[in-house]
Design a protein that fits this description.
single chain, about 45% helix, about 15% strand
C-alpha cells in the first residue's frame, strides 16, 4: 500500500500530465495544498520532495515550486536483425582493468552496477545477521553442503511459487552470487568449443564466463523495448549448433527492457523446437518499476528446459554473495558442479537472508526500493540530457538502476573511460558489452549513486570531454 505522500505526489503528476499545470506554472503552496487535500504539512512536504527528486518540479528561492520543463528522451534505436556468426570473446581484459582501477574510494563510481549503500537495507541486514547467529548458533560456522541451507531454499521456492513457478526446495541450489550460478549453469549444458546465443549488448560478466569456459558467443541483436530479436535467433538456430541461450528477460542489463510475455513464450517455444536449453538470468526482476513483478520465462513455459538463475546481490547486499539456481532436470549435474567449484557457499549469509525473508521485511523493502531506483534513473537521465551533446540517446529502463547512453558522434568510449579514470570518474564503455567489441559510441551508467555535487560535476565533465573529443574528429 502506498504512503499518503506518494498518493499525493502521484495525483499532482497526473495533473501535470493532463495539462492542468504546464511547464513553468507555479504550483499552489504547501499550506494551500495541505488545506485542499486535508493532509498534514509534513505529508505535503514529503510529496514535493518526491516530485523534486523525480524531476517534475523545481524550487525557486523565495518563490515556491514550479513545474519543471522535462527533457525529451531520444530513445535507443533498435538494431536491424542481422545474420550473426559465432566468435571468441575478446577484449574482456580491458573490462577487468577498468574494474580494478575503478575499485578505489576516491573514484566516482558510475560504471559498476553496484548500488550505493544508501539504497540498501544496511541496518536491517545487520540486525538479521545478529539474529541469525543467535538463532542458529554454531551451525552458522559450519559447512552448508550443496544444495544449501534448507531454510533459505524453502523461502526461495515460496517466492518463486508466488511468481508462478512451481519449484520445490529440493530443486534449488544455493550459489555464491548470480555470476557463479551462470557459470555452473553453462558448465552443466555445454563443453569447450560450444556455441552460446546471447543478447547484444549483454552484461560483460557473462562474456567473461563464456571466455573462461572456452565457449563461443553468438550475439543476437535486441530491440531496446522488447528484447532479443526472435527472427535473428531463429536464423541462427537454423545455421549453427547452438548448445544454450542466455537471456535477461526482465529489466535487462544494460538496456533495461522487459520482454513482453508473448515474446517470452515465443522464445521458449523456439528453443524447445531446437532442443536448446534456456538459461534465464533474473537478477533484476525484483526491481521492476511496474506495479506487478514481470512474469518469468519459467512460469510461462513450465515444461520447457529452463535453468533459472538469480541472486540477492542487487537488492539486499552484493557482499553477502547469495545467489541460486532452480536447476530443473539438470539438478544432479548442477549440485555436483557446485560442490567441485568451491564445496559450499558461506553459511551465515544464507541463514541471514533466510531469516530476513521469513520476517517479511524483504517485500516491504522492495516496495520502497523500486520507487527509489525509478527516481534515480529519472534523475540520471535528466542530467545526461542536460550535460551531454544534443542528439544523445538514452535507454528507457523498465527496472533496475542502469541506463545505456548512445553518443551522437563516433567517439570510442573506451578511450573516454580511460581519460575519465584519470579524472576520478568510472564509466562502463560500450565495447565491453560485446564479444566483438561493438558499441564503441555507447556507455552504461549506474544511477544508484549517492546524488551530490560530485556527481553533477562528474557528468558535466564527461559532457564537456565528449564535446571536446567530437571537435577533434
Amino acid at each position: 500500500m502506498s504512503h499518503l505522500y506518494q498518493t499525493l505526489a502521484t495525483d499532482i503528476v497526473k495533473q501535470i500530465e493532463s495539462g492542468h499545470y504546464r511547464p513553468g506554472d507555479k504550483l499552489p503552496g504547501i499550506r494551500a495544498i495541505s488545506r485542499q487535500r486535508n493532509v498534514s504539512i509534513a505529508t505535503t512536504q514529503s510529496a514535493f520532495r518526491v516530485l523534486e527528486d523525480d524531476g517534475w518540479v523545481e524550487v525557486r528561492p523565495r518563490s515556491g515550486f514550479y513545474v519543471r520543463a522535462r527533457q525529451t528522451v531520444s530513445p535507443i534505436v533498435a538494431a536491424a536483425p542481422s545474420d550473426p556468426k559465432p566468435s571468441n570473446v575478446t577484449g574482456q581484459d580491458m573490462a577487468l582493468s577498468l574494474i580494478k582501477a575503478a575499485n578505489k574510494h576516491h573514484i566516482l563510481q558510475l560504471g559498476a552496477a553496484v548500488p550505493d549503500l544508501s539504497f540498501l537495507p544496511v541496518q536491517p541486514i545487520s540486525q538479521a545477521t545478529s539474529q541469525a547467529q543467535k538463532r542458529f548458533g554454531d551451525r552458522a560456522l559450519s559447512y552448508e553442503m550443496p544444495p544449501g541451507a534448507l531454510e533459505l531454499r524453502r523461502q526461495i521456492a515460496r517466492r518463486m511459487g508466488e511468481a508462478g513457478c512451481a519449484v520445490s526446495s529440493e530443486e534449488v541450489v544455493i550459489t555464491s552470487g548470480c555470476q557463479e550460478a551462470l557459470t555452473i549453469a553453462l558448465k552443466a549444458v555445454t563443453k569447450a568449443g560450444d556455441i552460446v546465443a546471447i543478447e547484444s549488448p549483454t552484461f560483460y560478466g557473462l562474456l567473461q564466463v563464456i571466455e573462461s569456459l572456452g565457449l563461443e558467443a553468438l550475439e543476437i541483436p535486441v530491440d531496446p523495448q522488447t528484447g532479443m530479436s526472435l527472427d535473428a535467433l531463429k536464423l541462427a538456430l537454423e545455421r549453427w549448433p547452438i548448445k544454450a541461450c542466455v537471456v535477461v528477460a526482465n529489466c535487462s542489463n544494460p538496456l533495461g527492457y522487459t520482454m513482453p510475455d508473448e515474446s517470452k513464450l515465443a522464445l521458449t517455444s523456439l528453443l524447445t523446437e531446437h532442443n536448446v536449453p534456456l538459461i534465464e538470468d533474473d537478477v533484476y526482476g525484483d526491481l521492476s518499476f511496474d506495479k506487478h513483478r514481470p512474469a518469468l520465462c519459467r512460469s510461462l513455459a513450465p515444461q520447457a528446459d529452463i535453468i533459472y538463475c538469480s541472486s540477492f546481490s542487487k537488492t539486499l547486499s552484493p557482499g553477502l554473495r547469495v545467489g541460486w539456481i532452480a536447476a530443473g532436470k539438470h539438478l544432479a549435474r548442477i549440485e555436483y558442479l557446485k560442490y567441485v567449484s568451491n564445496i559450499a557457499s558461506a553459511t551465515l549469509p544464507q541463514l541471514t537472508v533466510a531469516h530476513f525473508l521469513e520476517s517479511g521485511r524483504y517485500d516491504r523493502y522492495l516496495r520502497q526500493a523500486r520507487g527509489q531506483y525509478a527516481r534515480a534513473v529519472s534523475r540520471m537521465t535528466d542530467a545526461v540530457l542536460r550535460y551531454f551533446p544534443e542528439g544523445t540517446r538514452v535507454s528507457q529502463p523498465r527496472g533496475g538502476f542502469v541506463i545505456w547512453v548512445e553518443l551522437p558522434c563516433a567517439i570510442n568510449t573506451f578511450e573516454l573511460a580511460q581519460q575519465a579514470l584519470g579524472h576520478g570518474i568510472s564509466i562502463a564503455p560500450g565495447p565491453i558489452f560485446s564479444a566483438k567489441q561493438k558499441f564503441k559510441n555507447a556507455m552504461r551508467l549506474s544511477c544508484a549513486c549517492k546524488w551530490d555535487e560530485k556527481v553533477e560535476k562528474g557528468l558535466a565533465w564527461l559532457g564537456a570531454r565528449i564535446e571536446h573529443m567530437q571537435l577533434r574528429k
